[in-house]
Design brief:
Layout lengths: L1 H15 L1 H14 L1 H9 L9 H11 L3 E6 L5 E7 L2 E7 L6 E4 L4 H12 L3 H30 L14 H31 L29 H5 L5 E5 L10 E5 L2 E5 L6 E6 L2 H14 L4 H31 L14 E6 L4 H15 L4 E5 L11 E7 L13 H6 L8 E7 L8 H13 L8 E4 L3 H15 L15 E11 L7 E7 L5 H5 L12 E4 L8 E4 L9 E6 L5 H7 L6 E7 L13 E6 L3 H9 L7 E7 L9 H10 L4 E6 L9 H7 L1 H9 L3 E6 L1 H15 L6 H6 L3 E5 L1
Parallel strand pairs: 9-10, 9-11, 11-12, 12-13, 20-21, 20-23, 21-22, 23-24
Antiparallel strand pairs: 1-2, 1-5, 2-3, 3-4, 5-6, 6-7, 7-8, 14-15, 14-19, 15-18, 16-17, 16-19
């Protein structure tokens, strides 16, 4: 429940306070420039220069001087009157000479007023304080959710943030600048509290002092002991005694305290150490504005730049989740429903599958009630229950269902069958862990089931359809699950060339190279044109006459200037048949689906690539993109080198160029071909152990049985190191792309 409340706080504060936070962030970014500029151009006093000497030099050069100020940047400004004309002059502390007039920037003043009060005086200051409080709660709630997503607070700093590019940008920028944003929000709240006198910002009233009467002339400034003892680099301001007021005194304010000096005797009339309230306020002010701390000002500027990024990416994430949650029709009340469907979904995608199941059951005459999992309760009219549960982060429940498992485990078991269908991504070590936990709790409590637990990988429509067919058989009724995924905007790709392989006993295969019309960086920035992609990402192809896209691993990256895939024509395959029949010049509609758990990050660590059949496609893309010639080793399995050694010529060329360090093959249909790819791994066990010991990352692509055989072989090979595939996966060093 607490997690759910944090999520709601984060969402609604981000939406409603986001616009004002955006304005404060932009103006804060602008204001952060001025301390850097001022420090850069300031003329600093030499270290240890006494205030008395500085004042004497200034008085000798500036007629009618009344006050000296040291700005946070280090600049010295003399305030004087030239007749009736007030003047402010920057002076050189080494000589007292006037460097020019000093005038605060009108732009800076305008932006500061906009930043502090939205140009609305006290009501605006209250609003700004409210936005600061909202930013504090946003940062705290976002940090809490990020820690949960990464698997705990210990992984908050080092854990790998996964998800869509927008989610990664939102999470990474938040992780980097969370502390800065918390500090900025707290200091803003403190300064607002001092503005409205809720917290003192300085000492009380000044002491009532005056110079002693007398006829003697004023004490020379350079002879005043206190001013000789105080360094200029700690000066805040020095007020000269007024010429027309014989009772006026010298007044000095420094970082360590304030003093009042008799103008004739030089005697210190009073001294007040700097009060704690002022020292604290000075630090708060410096931390919030960067005044006097130019390096910190740069950090604040980065934080200000981050706020628009937060707001835009947060809004996009919210909008994506809203779009993914479909509207359910004919949703019967729970008390009258014979079928209950409960959903746990983090981003909303699982609701699309729930709608397909809901609609199919409704068409068959069932009264169906579909609701979030936290509302789990089996009514007396229910005859069957389904739970569709996605796994979030490192095996956690979606935020809204955080307490559902405990609640379900505490219920007394009934006689109504409860079937669990899980959704997740096999790249995560805890694939469908939440669905597994739900299923185990239900079985332990004694709830029956219609079907055993099934786990759907990467929202596979085909796997969902197979589950529906199994459900139809178990229930004895035809159940058509018409799941139609929401397809992002597609772009046309034109076939440039193709390379055919006979396939031997397997089905014929073709490597297709497609190109897009480049619309330029500006169009891509505005959401048009081909998005950037990496080898190992997926391309979704929408075949004519079918609403369901098919995904193919990419054997090229955006910088290659083309998009390359390897397609095996499957018997009756709608998309593979369509693609296999393409001729140069033909066009297809496609979109990019990031696959961040599988793609390779830039690194000098060794890379072990293991693939079989068409699974070599993304591995070939990794090798193609290895321009830095990092150590890369390929283990490839196929049937016959003359028929299905896909990318064979290119792989041999890359081996000669140094993009590939070594190649090991296994061909299962020829004599002395070496068997299967896992056999090649066992033959090379010593080198594999050495590579893994050096920190190698592993990527596996191919059929599910092949991946299982590879994992078994690697567990045997790595056992002497105390490692296995599970541990490597948990450390982000092992990932699969299986089909």
């Amino acid at each position: 429940m607490i997690i759910m409340q944090w999520r709601r706080i984060h969402r609604w504060l981000g939406l409603w306070a986001g616009a004002l936070a955006l304005l404060i962030g932009v103006t804060g970014l602008i204001l952060a420039f001025f301390p850097v500029r001022d420090t850069w151009r300031a003329v600093q006093a030499e270290p240890g220069l006494p205030v008395a000497v500085l004042a004497q030099r200034a008085a000798a050069q500036v007629a009618g001087i009344e006050e000296l100020r040291r700005l946070p940047s280090g600049d010295i400004v003399a305030y004087s009157f030239d007749g009736d004309q007030a003047r402010a002059s920057r002076i050189d502390p080494a000589s007292g000479q006037v460097l020019g007039d000093y005038q605060a920037s009108a732009v800076e003043r305008w932006v500061r007023n906009l930043h502090r009060s939205f140009m609305l005086d006290d009501p605006g200051r209250l609003s700004a304080a409210g936005v600061a409080l909202a930013m504090l709660l946003l940062t705290l709630s976002g940090t809490q959710m990020l820690a949960r997503r990464l698997g705990g607070w210990r992984r908050l700093v080092t854990g790998r943030i996964r998800g869509t590019p927008v989610q990664r940008i939102h999470g990474i920028s938040g992780r980097v600048l969370a502390l800065v944003l918390v500090l900025s929000s707290l200091t803003a709240l403190y300064m607002s509290a001092t503005t409205f006198s809720l917290i003192p910002a300085d000492a009380g009233a000044d002491p009532d002092v005056m110079s002693a009467p007398g006829e003697q002339s004023d004490q020379l400034v350079e002879a005043l002991p206190l001013l000789q003892a105080l360094p200029a680099d700690g000066l805040r301001k020095l007020n000269f005694p007024a010429a027309d007021d014989p009772e006026d005194v010298w007044t000095i304010s420094t970082d360590v305290g304030d003093g009042w000096i008799d103008r004739r005797s030089g005697y210190v009339l009073a001294w007040q150490p700097a009060p704690v309230a002022r020292v604290l306020y000075d630090w708060v002010y410096a931390l919030h504005t960067g005044q006097g701390l130019w390096a910190w000002a740069l950090v604040l500027g980065l934080a200000g730049l981050c706020i628009p990024v937060f707001w835009v990416t947060g809004f996009l994430i919210w909008r994506q989740s809203r779009v993914r949650v479909p509207r359910l029709e004919n949703n019967s009340p729970a008390r009258r429903a014979d079928t209950l469907v409960f959903v746990a979904s983090e981003g909303g995608t699982t609701w699309g599958f729930a709608k397909a199941l809901h609609d199919a059951l409704t068409r068959n005459g069932h009264a169906v009630h579909t609701a979030p999992l936290e509302q789990f309760q089996v009514s007396g009219s229910a005859r069957q229950v389904f739970i569709l549960a996605a796994t979030y982060g490192e095996g956690q429940a979606p935020a809204h269902a955080a307490r559902a498992l405990d609640r379900i485990a505490g219920l007394e078991a009934g006689s109504v069958p409860v079937t669990v269908l899980g959704f997740g991504d096999r790249q995560f070590p805890a694939f469908c862990a939440y669905a597994e936990a739900l299923d185990q709790a239900l079985r332990a409590a004694g709830w029956p089931q219609t079907l055993p637990l099934e786990c759907v990988h990467q929202q596979s429509a085909q796997q969902f359809e197979r589950w529906g067919a199994a459900l139809s058989g178990a229930q004895g009724e035809a159940l058509a699950l018409n799941y139609v995924p929401r397809i992002p905007p597609t772009l046309p790709l034109a076939l440039e060339e193709r390379q055919d392989y006979a396939g031997g006993t397997a089905d014929p295969t073709v490597i297709l190279r497609l190109r897009w019309q480049d619309s330029g960086p500006m169009a891509r920035l505005l959401g048009g044109g081909m998005p950037r992609f990496k080898a190992g990402d997926l391309v979704g192809i929408v075949p004519p006459g079918s609403p369901v896209p098919r995904y193919y691993s990419l054997a090229s990256g955006f910088r290659d200037g083309f998009l390359e895939i390897c397609v095996r024509r499957m018997p009756g395959g709608v998309c593979s048949g369509f693609l296999y029949g393409l001729k140069p010049g033909d066009r297809v509609q496609a979109f990019i689906k990031p696959n961040p758990g599988f793609t390779l990050a830039a690194s000098r660590r060794p890379v072990v690539l293991i693939g079989a059949g068409t699974g070599v496609a993304p591995l070939a893309g990794f090798i193609r993109g290895n321009a830095r010639k990092a150590p890369m080793f390929l283990y490839f399995g196929a049937r016959n080198p003359d028929e299905d050694f896909y990318f064979g010529a290119a792989i041999r060329r890359w081996l000669g160029e140094g993009r590939l360090s070594a190649l090991s093959t296994a061909f299962s249909r020829i004599k002395e071909g070496g068997g299967y790819v896992q056999d090649a791994l066992r033959r090379d066990a010593d080198r594999l152990r050495s590579l893994v010991a050096k920190g190698a990352v592993l990527r596996v692509c191919g059929s599910r049985p092949m991946a299982a055989g590879v994992a078994e072989a690697l567990d045997e090979i790595l056992d002497p190191l105390g490692l296995d595939v599970r541990r490597l996966r948990e450390r982000g060093r092992y990932a699969e792309d299986v089909f």
